[in-house]
Amino acid sequence: MQGTQPMSNRILYVEDNFQNKRLVQKVLASRGYNVLEADDGLTGVEIALKEIPDLILMDISLPGIDGVEATQRIKAYTGTAHIPVIALTANAMRGDRERFIAAGCDDYLPKPISTADLLAMVQKYIQK
Ligand code: MN
After folding, report:
1. What's this model's pTM, rounded to 2 decimal places?
2. What 3-state DSSP class applies to 84?
3. If you measure from the C-alpha of residue 2 to the centroid of ligand 1, how many angstroms do you get, rounded to a whole number?
């Protein structure tokens, strides 16, 4: 994508799995995105409020509060309510997607993470 300024875009990735963090960090950093990381839901909420990232990738299964609860909190604050949140989870069951959307998630990305799908999703929400 030419003519865009991805260096200015910051993405918060809330994830407790090291392999996924490494993959997403590598893929997004190679495209010029600045990836902030949180290992659990509460830290994710704290960083979201403090840093106001352009996009949030939210694992659902997390230690402490889960990604659904963290998203509800982020969407409850006026300063962060506008930030798109993409839910990420493996083994999504029937009704999960609706549950994520109801919590305030803007979209959903299944695991295992596809690099192409990840980039397409990020571009959909960031490069407007
Ligand atoms: Mn997890």
Report:
1. 0.91
2. coil
3. 34
